[in-house]
Amino acid sequence: MLSQIIAFEMVLDENTVIKIFRKRFKGIYEDVGIYRLDDKYLLFNIDTFVGSSDRPYSMSMHSVGYKSIVSVASDLAVKGVMPFSLNISIGFETLSRQEIEDLRDGILYALNKYDLSEDIIHKWDTNYSRDLFISVAAYGLAGKTPPLRSGVKVGDKICIDGGFGLEALGLYFLLGKDSRIQKIPRDVREKAIESFLYPEPRLYEYIDLINNFEVHASIDSSDGLARSLNILSRESNVKIIVEPEKTVHNLVITCKKYLGIRRMYKLVYYGGEEYRGIFAVTEEEAREIEKKKKFICIGYVERGQGVYIKKDDKIVLLKDLGFIHKFS
Length: 328
Prior knowledge:
The chain is α+β, with helices and mostly antiparallel strands. It has two domains: about 30-140, CATH 3.30.1330.10; about 155-325, PurM-like C-terminal domain (Phosphoribosyl-aminoimidazole Synthetase, Chain A, domain 2, Alpha-Beta Complex). It has helices spanning about 1-10, 15-20, 50-55, 60-75, 95-115, 165-175, 185-195, 205-210, 225-235, 250-255, 255-260, 260-270, 285-290; strands spanning about 10-15, 35, 40-50, 85-90, 120-130, 135-140, 155-160, 215-220, 240, 275-280, 295-300, 305-310, 315, 325. A seven-stranded mixed beta sheet has the order 8-10-7-11-9-12-13. Strand 4 (about 85-90), helix 5 (about 95-115) and strand 5 form a beta-alpha-beta unit. The protein starts with a helix and ends with a strand.
């Protein structure tokens, strides 16, 4: 029994590790770091891609480089800015020259796609590592107070820029976990895989939203829709009600007969890998955002706690689950 308890205590996840550090190192617990500079705010973030946990076997180094940039830029974009500086650290054990060049070209592809200058990478670092890793630190400058995860208000609407589940479906294909989903039409499979390998969050539209509308709270969705919504609920001390039919990507809906409803919603709420924004706005602003920006309002906010799915006349708890790194 004692050995079982010790073994259990040794299993840590990323949230537990961060909490251990936060006990001694205080600060705002956000998607990004925030530092006041006179009338502006310096926003900064770091994200790490690890080969053994983040890279399916068939994923190219070009895609690895692309996603490494998009993942860190999305955290800044949902707070209203794009990066003006990037620092990149790379570790690996065995990569060929061609693979390193592919990684470089994937980074360049992401920068060019989002109109970022190649000159914003100010520092490179490399080291030997038994596992591939790419850490990217990003810095942005905001002219106004960024929306925090704790800013959701009762009466707000929760908005996203498109349905979820396609990127997770792409990963499902790459992992080949279920032969039944191979019956899904080839064009849908290809689009899903492409969405996983090269996600395209609407970063500049997030920035426009933050700077031109009244956004009370925002978060990046890379760890899954359910986890992100639960973070907003917990840190804002509110209850969020979600209308499930509005959360599903159109192409994922076409796969319902192959996936089954349960697996489909599992991909939507717990799949992750979207790097997209979730925003809390006033009801009045939500109507304008839906009309002008083509965002989708998937739910609303009440007094209380937790996240719930509205099903007929009932509400069902949406558990706080999603991707999380675990250590042993």
